[in-house]
Amino acid sequence: MAQLVLGIETSCDETAAAVVRLENGKAQVLSNIVASQIKDHSPYGGVVPEIAARKHVEKIDDVIGLAIREAGVELSDLSGVAATAGPGLIGGVLVGLLSAKAIALGAGLPFIAINHLEGHALSPKLTQDLDFPYLLLLVSGGHCQILKVVELGQYKRLGTTIDDALGEAFDKTAKLLVLGYPGGPLVERAASLGNPKYELPRPMINRPGCDFSFAGLKTAVSRLAQSLENEKGELSNECVNDICASFQAATMAVLLNRLEAAFAMSELTGNNRRLVVAGGVAANQAIRSAINELCESFGWQYFAPELKYCGDNGAMIALAGAMRLEAGITSDLHTKARPRWPLDEISAPLNLKHGYGKKGAKV
Ligand code: KG4
Ligand code: ZN
Fold it and tell me: Residue 16 and which of 49, 156, 271, 314 are 20 to 30 A apart at CA?
């Protein structure tokens, strides 16, 4: 049976809604509306939670209406309504979550609460055939983790950052070099024009396990920038480009080293050696191609979402909702927003032997 799901995403600075159809394991994105708040936050060099929440309130109705209209469906055609319930900025999460609950209640549809990280984890399936299990590198503004995705709802975290997320390191580097916001694409562009000639630390390389650390790298970038400033405290464009190239090279070396360790830790063998790179930083072409090459040399298959599904979007939430619905999992309308919600914790909801009580699927 086909599932037709409206997915709503408001956990950070994108107000997003999409309609996805899932039939026989194939997803079709019927609409994907993303209203970005970049210009509202750029004067501050980062996301301001209160502004984000207010903008979500202003935009959410239009974004959802547009997603429904563009998909050419009626609410009564839908099989369910899904929304990000966390992790994320609580004010924003509440806006999307309450809207989804209201629509589900009003239209008499099932409601599905989605972990935002599960949305990213499943995002390549929007456009590609990808079987479980696989290894997942999730690199975004708020997260930097390596997980083993066993099946829908079963995630095992193998490694994580002990301080900053990778996207955060890109954003902080951009802020320091006065490049603008969001920093990732700007640092990538500057790096493509520069030469990675400066030695920067490559934290955690060759340490046991596959954890990350990026705080020290950010401090090193700051010191390097200061040492290269002229008497007026300015940096030449060439210096900025070279710093960005050196920063990006250091992050890539760390990513490749940690992934190599994770390949062994994953215990995936033969045709199950699949790696998915997802999250906002997965839009970085240099990082994508370096990881693709690593996969080729280790005999792993490489998957990444299409660029438009790397950053936050409603389609990945709708797909996660459709997959959960297909597995017979829905959520209670009392489901609370969770600012923190580790992905490996959601293995419980699929374990239906615990039932739906306090310790069961709705916990
Ligand atoms: O997944 P996402 O849209 O939001 C979170 O869930 O965090 O990721 C946003 C992050 C930002 O830190 C942004 O700077 C980073 O992804 N990013 C990039 C690139 N495009 C976006 N980082 C590096 N290179 C890029 N091209
Ligand atoms: Zn995200």
Answer: 156
